[in-house]
Amino acid sequence: MIAQDIEKILLSEEEIENRCVELAHQIEEDYKESGETPIVVGLLKGSVPFMAELIKRFEFPCEIDFMSVSSYDGTESIGDVRILKDMDLSCKNRSILVVEDIIDTGRTLVEVKKMFKNKGCLDVRCVTLLDKPSRRVCEIEADYVGFEVPNEFVVGYGLDYSQKYRNLPFVGVLKPEIYQ
Ligand code: IMP
Ligand code: MG
């Protein structure tokens, strides 16, 4: 069973769910004020469990879509961000809420924000489940952050190691022997 590969749990399912309720309220307050109907855009594949947990708490109108960008080779970011799958909806003159699993170096978010601005979006915000500020190489912050995590490679709740462990219902750190 995949949970046996975990050395320690950093965030339990309950902690994540409770935080999603708080985040959803905070986001809702902001969009209620502006009266916009945003497109909530999940970055595949890591955002899927978080996005599902979050959007079911939204009581304001929104549309949802997905994009796939860039790649991550093992445990190190390779830096170059490419669109692998584009959105279905047109985002011109729309407000965008990007959903990320984790902001690490910040390169992905910088490039994705730039791309949305170039496409003529009115407003681009980001909500991320996790933030690893100690790893940042670009000056960027998400507008809404679930949890700050230390400089450790984490898996679960959407986050993978070589495409595995995304389906764990919590966030944890792998046993060192798994990387060998
Ligand atoms: P950034 O461009 O360096 O901010 O990288 C963001 C992407 O790197 C995330 O969407 C993840 O896919 C991946 N990533 C960064 N840190 C981790 C981690 O600790 N575990 C799993 N994936 C990670
Ligand atoms: Mg990702």
Order of helices and strands: EHEHEEEEEHEEEE
Helical percentage: 10-25%
Count every helix, treating DSSP H or I runs of 4 or more residues as helices. 3
What small ligands are held by the chains? Answer: inosinic acid, magnesium ion
Number of strands: 11
What integer value in Å does the Rg equal? 16 Å
Give the biggest sheet. Answer: 6 strands, mixed
Approximately how much beta-strand content do the residues carry?
Answer: 25-35%
Instruction: List low-confidence stretches.
Output: none
Given the C-alpha coordinates, what overall shape results? Answer: globular
> Reading side by side through the largest sheet, how are the strands ordered?
6-3-2-7-8-9
Instruction: Provide the residue-averaged pLDDT.
Output: 93
Structural class: alpha/beta
Q: Report how far apart the termini are.
A: 18 Å
Your description of this structure?
The chain has helices at residues 13-34, 48-55, 107-118, and strands spanning 6-11, 39-44, 63-69, 72-73, 76-77, 83-85, 95-103, 123-131, 144-148, 154-155, 171-174. It is α/β, with parallel strands linked by helices and 180 residues long. The strands form 3 sheets. It has a 6-stranded mixed beta sheet with strand order 6-3-2-7-8-9. Helix 1 (13-34) packs across helix 2 (48-55). The protein starts with 5 loop residues before the first strand and ends in a 6-residue tail after the last strand. Inosinic acid (IMP) binds at residues 46, 72, 77, 100-108, 153-155, 159-160. The site of magnesium ion has 3 residues, from loops.
